[in-house]
């Protein structure tokens, strides 16, 4: 964990140095205005300083938790608390829920100070934050209530499955998580997302017609088109799609609609998103995530009965939740390596989706959209190649614009003939 931290901090320092450069990278000169560059530089440097503090606190906290044997202490105390309340501490599910409640309160306190600073200092100073402290508190209360409703049954089910799972526990766990993921993907947009944001159907008009025409031409089963009021919280902009099989929805941020100069620019963003769908990117990622989850449970099955592992972390018994937590700690470096690999694939997919939009004739509009989104979100202009190769799920703007500039095969042949 510490070695991973040192390596990633080295990358952060490299990126911080790139952020400090006083000029735009050459390909963006004249494309991005000087004013936007200055603002993005200030914003990203501020975020970068914040990130250093956040990462340092996180690694110190986790190291202290393991080194000072906080886990066995909290496990013991939560057991005593269960007894005081008059419940059965021998019941592992009840004991686990008490333990996790304590952990959740602690993480909530730590996380709160960071998210308050991030929202009301950084985002506010750079003109992104649109929410009041009341909206922030209301969101937080809703989130806590949701996790109090959804958390316990899920945790109880996982503990129960591991208790009775036997040799095939990895398969049962994976099956449970698969069903849960599908269930969440179904109810999240209908039940949970509307708790936080307002989704209204895109009004009739040129934009709607153009998107529907594009979807129809690609045989995309577009069922509904929504606008979400992202602007009540932040002026960051985006668009996404979701849904199964023949029941797809596209959601546009109201900020995206406000920021783009004409409909075709927005449609080019949709063309890119539809590229992800047409090229099966979403399915590939879903399968990869499922496979990795199965491997993770398999790894856990191998480690879960080792007395040595538990003893090394200060436990004489073998609580299931502790096994899961220790295993999770142990695979952190592997997890980061895996994220790097997934980023490699994701960036290749982004180029493919851009090329897809380009082949539909949206290259100039998509270029405009990418530049606009980059400006409005004050995204990083100067990127360190090591840092972006490791962390970025999307290629840097410079590379995307260059790829959109290269003529298509047909055009290239034509040029060669001329
Ligand atoms: Zn994309």
Automatic annotation (TrEMBL):
Top-level EC class as recorded in UniProt: hydrolase
Catalysed reaction equations from the record: Hydrolyzes the peptide bond -P2-(S-farnesyl or geranylgeranyl)C-P1'-P2'-P3'-COOH where P1' and P2' are amino acids with aliphatic side chains and P3' is any C-terminal residue
Cofactors named for this entry: Zn(2+)
Residues the record marks as active site: 273, 354
Transmembrane segments: 48-68, 97-122, 143-165, 171-196, 282-300, 320-342
One record GO biological process: CAAX-box protein processing
Entry keyword annotation includes Ribonucleoprotein: no
Residue ranges annotated for the Peptidase M48 domain, each copy included: 202-405
Cofactor notes: Binds 1 zinc ion per subunit.
Lipid bilayer topology: Multi-pass membrane protein
Subcellular location: Endoplasmic reticulum membrane
InterPro entries, A to Z: CAXX_Prtase_1 (IPR027057), Peptidase_M48 (IPR001915), Peptidase_M48_N (IPR032456)
EC number per UniProt: 3.4.24.84
Domain CAAX prenyl protease 1 N-terminal, chain residue ranges per copy: 15-198
Example of a GO MF term: metalloendopeptidase activity
Gene Ontology cellular-component terms listed: endoplasmic reticulum membrane
Positions that bind Zn(2+): 272, 276, 350
Pfam families: Peptidase_M48 (PF01435), Peptidase_M48_N (PF16491)
Record keywords: Endoplasmic reticulum, Hydrolase, Membrane, Metal-binding, Metalloprotease, Protease, Transmembrane, Transmembrane helix, Zinc
Role according to the record: Proteolytically removes the C-terminal three residues of farnesylated proteins.
Family according to the record: Belongs to the peptidase M48A family.
Name of this chain's protein: CAAX prenyl protease
Originating species: Digitaria exilis
């Amino acid at each position: 964990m510490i070695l991973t931290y040192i390596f990633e901090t080295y990358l952060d320092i490299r990126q911080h140095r790139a952020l400090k450069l006083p000029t735009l990278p050459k390909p963006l000169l004249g494309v991005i205005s000087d004013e936007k560059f200055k603002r993005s530089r200030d914003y990203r440097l501020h975020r970068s300083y914040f990130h250093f503090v956040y990462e340092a606190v996180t690694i110190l906290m986790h190291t202290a938790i393991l080194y000072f044997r906080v886990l066995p202490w909290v496990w013991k105390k939560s057991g005593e608390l269960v007894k005081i309340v008059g419940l059965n501490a021998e019941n592992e599910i009840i004991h686990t829920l008490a333990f996790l409640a304590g952990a959740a309160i602690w993480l909530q306190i730590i996380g709160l100070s960071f998210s308050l600073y991030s929202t009301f200092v950084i985002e506010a100073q750079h003109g992104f934050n649109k929410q009041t402290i009341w909206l922030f508190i209301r969101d937080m209360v809703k989130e806590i209530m949701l996790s109090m409703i959804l958390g316990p049954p899920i945790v109880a089910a996982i503990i129960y499955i591991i208790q009775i799972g036997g040799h095939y526990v990895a398969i049962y766990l994976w099956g449970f998580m698969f069903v849960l993921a599908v269930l969440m993907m179904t109810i999240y947009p209908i039940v949970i997302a509307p708790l936080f944001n307002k989704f209204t159907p895109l009004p009739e008009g040129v934009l709607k017609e153009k998107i529907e025409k594009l979807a129809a031409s690609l045989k995309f089963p577009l069922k509904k088109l929504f606008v979400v009021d992202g602007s009540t919280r932040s002026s960051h902009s985006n668009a996404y799609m979701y849904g199964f099989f023949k029941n797809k929805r596209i959601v546009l941020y109201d900020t995206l609609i406000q920021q783009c100069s004409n409909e075709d620019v927005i449609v080019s963003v949709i063309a890119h998103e539809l590229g992800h769908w047409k090229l099966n990117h979403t399915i590939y990622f879903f399968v990869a995530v499922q496979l990795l989850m199965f491997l993770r449970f398999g790894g856990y099955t191998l480690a879960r009965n080792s007395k040595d592992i538990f003893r090394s972390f200060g436990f004489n018994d073998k609580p299931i939740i502790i096994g899961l937590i220790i295993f999770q700690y142990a695979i952190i470096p592997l997890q980061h390596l895996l994220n790097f690999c997934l980023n490699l694939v994701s960036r290749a997919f982004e180029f493919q989706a851009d090329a897809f939009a380009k082949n539909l004739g949206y290259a100039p509009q998509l270029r405009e959209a990418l530049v606009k989104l980059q400006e409005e979100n004050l995204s990083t202009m100067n990127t360190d190649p090591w840092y972006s190769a490791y962390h970025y799920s999307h290629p840097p703007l410079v590379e995307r614009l260059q790829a959109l500039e290269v003529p298509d095969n047909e055009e290239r042949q034509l040029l060669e003939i001329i």
